[in-house]
Amino acid sequence: MSTATPTFDLVIAANRLPVDRVVGPDGEATWRRSPGGLVTAMESVMRGREGAAWVGWAGEPGEAPEPFEQDNIYLAPVPLSEDEVRRYYEGFSNDTLWPIYHDVIVPATFHRGWWNTYRDVNRRFAEAVAKVVSPGGTVWVHDYQLQLVPAMVRELRPDVRIGWFNHIPFPPVELFAQLPWRRALVEGLLGADFLGFQRTADAENFLRACRRMLGMTTKGDTVVFTPHGSGAQERTVRASAIPISVDFRGLDQLARTPEVIARAKEIRESLGNPRVLMLGVDRLDYTKGIRHRLKAYEELLHDKEISPPDTVLVQVATPSRERVEAYRQLRQEVEATVGRMNGEYSDIGSPAVQYLHHGYGREEMAALFLAADVMLVTPLRDGMNLVAKEYVACRTDLGGALVLSEFAGAWHELHQSFVCNPHDIAGLKQTIMYAINTPEPERRRRMKALRRRVADHDVRRWAERYLEALEMAPRKPQRQRLQHDQAEQTAHSEDRANRAVADLASETGGR
Ligand code: ADP
Ligand code: F6P
What we know:
The protein is an alpha/beta fold. Helix content is 46%, strand content 19%. It is built from 17 helices and 18 strands. A 10-stranded mixed sheet has the order 5-6-4-1-7-8-9-12-11-10, sandwiched between helices. The protein has a 6-stranded parallel sheet with strand order 15-14-13-16-17-18, with helices on both faces. A two-stranded antiparallel sheet has the order 2-3. The longest helix is centred in the C-terminal third of the chain and has 29 residues, at 479-507. Residues 494-511 have low confidence and may be disordered. It binds adenosine-5'-diphosphate (ADP) and 6-O-phosphono-beta-D-fructofuranose (F6P). Adenosine-5'-diphosphate (ADP) binds at residues 36-37, 40, 281, 283, 316, 318, 358-360, 365, 384-387, 390.
């Protein structure tokens, strides 16, 4: 029997596989959905697609499990030793790059040893990719953990097309310049044919880094350079913004199911049917502005602008990167603050803040979104923030209000939200009260516009646009084709939005 490794026309490379392997106390191994926006988005793009592979880490140190198939996707686990998890994942990715790429909200740590391991692990990913991609196939690399992979894959497999998408911000050159390995990172990325970013500002930051730090020439959204090595030919790489999104249709349908609607009602009942239910859903990450949000909320309680049981805040704080010191500190601080607020402002049976430190299924998340009158999305810096878009997609009833930080990528698309600057606590308090007190017709008008935007620019369209840009790079995709797609999308989404309104009218007896 042949044991040759199968090959695929499309290969995704991301730090994590869509599922994590978890070993329970009884020694039994199970697979659980991996955390984060990257997996949420890519999982819906890949669902049902044939002839594709996903190369990534299975979430636990040690030997990698054998490759396996899930939902028609070939999953190829990459092993990371305990030491590599500390140096490559917790160290260089999340304690060096993450703070630099998020405005240095906490100081970045620089260790040469971490960099060496980052390079070694990126090489391992590149080799795993090179093994499974078909001749002339497409490789789509994701995020800041794998910035050296594009050039490494090109070296091993010059026959394939290579794209990279950054799910997080790309920093201004003044911050990027702090990295002792800045040149190697840019050269690693320039192994790609197309580099995708969340915002135009991110793509511009990257192009500026090419000019200022490597003396390269940029022309519009392309960079022209000659790679090292004898006989290397001039290359042109395109860097442009293609903002990521959510599975609007899937979430919209899920939020309409009787089970989710009933569960949303049950959640409200179990909280004593508050007049205002506020919700925060974030990985427990210092970029998400949870401390600022709690401060504003605590002051509103103190000022008696709000009080339980009339108003309740549910904060879902998803466990994340728990061995990195800044994350440990954040957890301690957040939990101490919640404890203090509840001690001060709760009554028996009516907490001021309901704090939940768990992962949930899609249905429960949709029910929470549907139950929440005000969604608080207040990051200090965030590449996109899919939670904001998921909330909008779940509000089939046109209810709810989205308070959104201007420092989230999502704000650049969701202008009808209630915008806030989370650093301005007085302003944040005002925005929260404004969102609560805005009359229903105005809230519905805003939600309708938000839904139209997310419906028009859903994750499927994002993936199509990305893959088309990659195929055409360094040229831009043909305008005509884009216009055709746009027209088609608009027609679909108008239809969907109209249906949403019609459904609502019928639910409320046309009132
Ligand atoms: P990030 O990628 O930084 O974590 P995003 O907001 O872009 O932030 O994406 C987070 C994703 O994780 C969303 O799809 C959200 O629904 C999901 N998520 C967040 N917290 C939980 C949780 N406790 N249980 C299940 N899914 C969660
Ligand atoms: O979007 C940023 C990101 O790091 C993604 O790579 C990932 O989906 C998510 O946040 C979760 O982080 P981690 O993989 O470190 O748990």
